[in-house]
Every structure is written in C-alpha cells, then in structure tokens.
C-alpha cells in the first residue's frame, strides 16, 4: 500500500490524517450503526447528529461538513433529505466523555451510509465539542420508516399554566405551574428538591430574565384538588442551561400519578424585562442597559450584538460565540435565554470598530462585560464575522389579532384586524389606507412574525379575496417600533374618505431587508466652503439646489456660498436597496447626465443647537448605483445607459463633493456654532431593517470665512449632555430663515 512505500512509521501515521480514506465498515457496517438527533433548542427534524458505534454514542466534527453529508445522515435518520446543516455546536456540545467519532467527513450525497464516505476514520479527530455538527432534515419521512431511537420520555416543550382566572387573560404569563410536554401530552414536575436554578432556566425559556420567590400556599391548596400527572420527579439544573431538556432529569416509570410524596407540582414566578412589564412603575424601574444593543433584527429580541466602548458603538466577532454568551446578552437586555447564537453576520454587517473577540461567558454573568474576551486587532476579524442572536421572548398572542389575506404568498395581502362589536362579538375588519405607509407595515409584519416590511400599500383592489368589507380602523400612525397595531395611534371613530374595500391597507413583508448607513468620517474629512459664481449655477438653480434668496440675486453676477461634502452610502443589510419607483417614472437630470430613480433620497440641513433650521434644507434626488464594493462582492447597478439602479449588499454609492447639488447653500447664514445633518431615505420610501442609523450629525463652527466640522456620528439625535455642552459662538443670535 501507499504507506509501506514510506520508510518511517511516523510518517505513515501522519499521512493517514491528511489523506482521508473511506471508513472501514468491518463488523460495524451501515446496518449496525444507529443515529439520533440531540441538543437544544430544536424541532424533531433537526439537532446535533450523534452516531452509536461500538456501544457508545458520539458526535461528528464540522470540519469539511457539507449539505451532501447532511443528505446521507438525514436518510439514515429516516427523513427524505436535508435542507441544511449547522456548525460550531449550534445545538449544544456533546457532554462528558462523549467521543467525536468522525472528522473530515466527505460524502457525495448518494451513499447508503456515512460509514462509506471518506473521513479520518472512526475515533480519529483533532476537534473539540465546540465543533459538533448538526443537521436540519426535511420534515418528511421515508416510506415505511420506523424510528427505533425514540426517547419515550423526551421533554419537547415547556409552559407555565396560570391558575388564577385573571392571570389566564393577561399577557405575558409570568407565573404558574410548570408543565412539560412529551408523547402523551402535558404533565407536571414534582417540586421535591426544586431550586431557584431550575426556575431560572424555566423563566429563561419563557422569555424572562429573572425568577422570584413564589407563594406556594395557594398552589398547594389548588394542587390537592387537581389530578396531577408527574412525568418528572427530579430536576437538577445548573442555571446556565437554555432549555430544561439540557438539565439532568429523572422520569417516572411507574405510577406517575402518585409519585410526588410530600411534594406538589413545581411552580415558578418570573420577572419580566422592561419591554414586557405590566405596570408603568415597573417599566421605569427596569431600565434597558445603555452599553449594549441589538441592531438589524425584524423582531424584538433578535439582532446583531453591538456594544458601546468609550463613545463608539462596535460589534462582536463570532469566534467562540455560543449560546452561553448569547444568553448573558439576552438576559441583560431584559429577554430570556438565547434561542440561537448566530455567526457570520446573519443579521447584517456592522460599521466601525469590532470591540470584542472570543467572548467566553460561564452563563452566570450579569453583563457581557463581565465575561472573558479578547481585544480585537485588525487581522483578527472582519464585519463578515459579526455575532448576532435570537432570544426567547414572552408570548404575547399578538398574531391572533391581525391577518393578511389575498396575496400571492403568506408574506403579502390586505390587512384585517380583529375587533369587538358592541354586543361582544368578535369580527374581522379592514383598515383605511389613507396615510398608511412603511412604518405601519413594519408593525404588521413584526406582529405576524413575517420579517421586515417591503411596502405599505394604500390600495388593495388586486387582493380582493375576502368577504370582509367594513372599515373598522382609520388614521393609523405608528413609529415603527410598536409590537402590535393596538399600540399605534388611530382615530377613535372611523373617518375614511375612501371607504370602499379596494382602498383598504395592505402589506408586503420580506425575510430580509437592506440597511443604509452614511460614512460619517468621510463627511468630516471632505467638508469645505466654496464661493461659486452664479454663472456656473444655472443648472443647479433649475433643480432647486439653492436657497430661495438666490432667485433675487443679480444673475449672472455674484456668487453663492456652498457648504460642500461627499456622501458615501453603504448597504450593510441583507437585501439590495432598490428604488420603489419603476423605470417609467424615473426623471432625467441634465446636471448629472443620468436618470434619478428616487425624488427625495437624502435631506441635507444646517441647524442651530435646538434643532431649528438655519439654512433651507436641500432635498437631494439620486441615481442609485454601486460605486465600489467590499472584497469578493460584484457591482450589479449602474446609472449609465439607463441601467438598473440600486445598491448591492456590501457595496456603496459615492456622490463626490464636486458634483452639482452635493451641498447646502449657506449664503444667508451668520457666523456661529451649528449642526450639519444628513438623513438618508427620510420618508421611509424603501424598506430597511434599521432606520435608526439613517441620520448623521456633525458639530460645525462657522466664523463667516471658514468652517470646522467635528464629531460626525450616526444616530437619531445628539444626547442631552451633548446639547448642554454645545456652546454659542460669541454674539450668535437665533439665525432662522423663515
């Protein structure tokens, strides 16, 4: 054989690790191996893949893992095929002395068993359980398959069952009897030996950050009158688990009804986070942390993790990112434990610094800053490795009060809301389309768990598939942050000018969205003043790029004073930014020599410290194209030759400071301290995953001849502290143009 041609045995052994060969079947052929899905949180058709070999269950390393491997393994699990696979122990690590049976597995996808695929061989691995592979199988069984690996007492779901009548109607449910679901239905847990750590895990699953003591006397009386079925009689959680199924559990195998001597059903009481507190006093008491946030998620409790270090927000690198660290973040933000720890910028890429790398939490920390981590260096990570997460959040039942019907898919349709008539009857009704827009659509899509809003539509005659015709809500006005439409403003009584069903509100939702951010440092670097002769500004005047006083100037003599700067707008989202208007409605702009696809794409303003505009705001229209892209990303859009317009994910559109209209006319502004503000997509005309990063502000000092620009940053507005520190220029008055 090949190895015998090598003189030294050590060389032979080393080479066997680098030249994978088909795994020998010997006595453990494909018919004697067993496979199962383990881990948490998961559905029955997904999980950490485990193989039973030589009398012991073990895992498979994710090195060289592929969808072809997952196809083979899913068929061995009795499913028709795979839809995906996971790496980095997404479903938790194999615990204890569990071996890693296979590494560098390379299947073509057609093999009858993973045992005939190439690999390092049984038990030969250089991995740790941080690299345990998982599979996601299509939820369709092979004909005639019988699962011989069914765990009769597996805990599938956990719930809190309230016993107070009033508590059953109030959302969220924060207290109740702990019940677990298995193959036979719902059952209770015996509370003998029950600890606060067990309660901590249950509260985390329910979407709550903390647990509190509960008055058991009432529940003891209640339980004595009930017929209980105790499936579990012992739970021993450490408190860091993200699912009760990960805790050591002892099941009842005999008479489950009589198996809690001296005890009662386990009862848990949880403390909700600030977003879900039921009283205003509690909401004020429970403040959100100021140094950590989630960005880019479609729902509350999910997003890219960003932390504040010094005065600058930055991201976290996904090296060693796992459920323990993600759970610390989730609880710190007022949610429960983590449902998913996502890697590879799954919630979009951030901009600016990456503050933390190789975060390692034990799960007991109160803040992410208490966990071990490494400071980042430029070579360590890129924003393609930004860490993100999904948290367990309290169930609120919002999806039961709204629906969309008539669309081509479940992601679009006419919006209908559930309302109560005067006689108490529940009926579905329509929403008046007047004033309906992207912010309102964002709330509906979030409420239904359908991702982001692509469009908010004011006419839906093409989706007429329901017999519901009555308008029951009008004047709906949302900020876009609400959890449900019921939290938005609306008319007390319906007032709709176009009351026909064809003019009712509709939405189009999407799993992904774009996210535009302006390059703030570039604005600061490129800002300057130019006195431009009027004879060079005829084209700009025709396009309304000058203040009103320019019309009274002695054309073509004289000049206008222009504050010029470059705009570089990045798409850091997960979908291309495309104009809402079709090509037929694009407008030709002679100054720039191309078509503009958005009438108002940016607002340029100069304001006083209190936000009063001191220079007439310039509303800039744009042609959208990919000026340049990140490494490995190809340009897709260009303005020339009436080309397709947009900004690709990972690309940016650059409008240089020397282009016509790339300015603010400050000819009438007196010396003083001001705020330069640029807002992208100000009318929310195109959907984005995050609108809070669309504004950029800079401090400006203007002495009548020169301008100094500093502290350019992204955000909604300056903090109160910054506004207090804002000093007036000597002799400055409230310069305001009427």
TrEMBL record:
Keywords: Copper, Cytoplasm, Disulfide bond, Glycoprotein, LTQ, Metal-binding, Nucleus, Oxidoreductase, Repeat, Secreted, Signal, TPQ
SUPFAM superfamilies given in the database record: SRCR-like (SSF56487)
Pfam families: Lysyl_oxidase (PF01186), SRCR (PF00530)
Enzyme class, broadest EC rank: oxidoreductase
Main location: cytoplasm
Ranges of residues in domain SRCR: 35-138, 158-271, 292-392, 402-510
Catalyzed chemical reaction(s): N(6)-acetyl-L-lysyl-[protein] + O2 + H2O = acetamide + (S)-2-amino-6-oxohexanoyl-[protein] + H2O2; L-lysyl-[protein] + O2 + H2O = (S)-2-amino-6-oxohexanoyl-[protein] + H2O2 + NH4(+)
Domain of life: Eukaryota
Record's keyword annotation contains Heme: no
Localisation: Cytoplasm; Nucleus; Secreted, Extracellular space
Post-translational modifications reported in the UniProt record: The lysine tyrosylquinone cross-link (LTQ) is generated by condensation of the epsilon-amino group of a lysine with a topaquinone produced by oxidation of tyrosine.
GO molecular function: copper ion binding; protein-lysine 6-oxidase activity
EC number: 1.4.3.13
InterPro entries: LOX-like_protein (IPR050912), Lysyl_oxidase (IPR001695), Lysyl_oxidase_CS (IPR019828), SRCR (IPR001190), SRCR-like_dom_sf (IPR036772)
GO CC entries: cytoplasm; extracellular space; membrane; nucleus
Disulfide bonds: 107-117, 237-247, 317-381, 330-391, 361-371, 432-496, 478-488
GO biological process, one term: collagen fibril organization
Family: Belongs to the lysyl oxidase family.
Function statement: Mediates the post-translational oxidative deamination of lysine residues on target proteins leading to the formation of deaminated lysine (allysine).
Name of the protein in question: Lysyl oxidase homolog
Organism: Cyprinus carpio
Lineage: Eukaryota, Metazoa, Chordata, Craniata, Vertebrata
